[in-house]
Amino acid sequence: MKTLRLSLWHLGLWLGLAACAAAMSVSVCLRYNEIAGTDKTPGHIARIAVAVMAGPMVGPVANPGSTGFRRQTLGLTAGLASVLLVSLSPFIFRKAPVSKPVFAVAWAGFLLASVIWFFGAIVSLGAYLS
């Protein structure tokens, strides 16, 4: 039996995925500078890398002048945030011993929701930079 509860493992997993997404965003920005012939400054690229933790809202940080996707971006962010909160709910509300398969499913759900969150960030970055 394992107990479901929030722990530093959740934070570690989240920050590890955030670091991967931040590295991907830096790569995307550098590639964008080459292809588009623009010059995103290192400071702006750093802000974008940190903003990936905001999920799809990284797009408006990357290109604040673009207004075309704002409504869709807000909706996508709200939807993905809801999914992330639902994935955390067993750890917040259950806090009791569960079988190992249930424990594994709860963790897999949190991992999947976190990956989708950061995937949404990278997709948003690509949409706003295109």
Your description of this structure?
- With 130 residues, the chain is mainly α.
- The protein has one domain (2-129).
- Helices cover 76% and strands 3% of the residues.
- The protein is built from 5 helices and 2 strands; from the N terminus they run E-H-H-H-H-E-H.
- Helix 1 (8-36) runs antiparallel to helix 2 (42-51) and helix 1 runs parallel beside helix 5 (100-129).
- The longest helix is centred in the last third of the chain and has 30 residues, at 100-129.
Descriptive labels:
130 residues, mainly alpha, two-stranded antiparallel sheet, elongated
Short note summarizing the structure:
The protein is mainly alpha-helical and 130 residues long. 76% of the residues lie in helices and 3% in strands.
List the helices and strands and how they pair.
Layout lengths: L1 E2 L4 H29 L5 H10 L6 H5 L7 H25 L2 E2 L1 H30 L1
Antiparallel strand pairs: 1-2
> End-to-end distance, in Å?
49 Å
> In oligomeric terms, what are we looking at?
single chain
State the helicity in percent bands.
over 70%
The H/E string reads: EHHHHEH
How would you state the average pLDDT, rounded?
91
Q: How many structurally independent domains?
A: 1
Total DSSP E strands: 2
Q: Over all CA atoms, what is the radius of gyration?
A: 17 Å
Main sheet properties: 2 strands, antiparallel
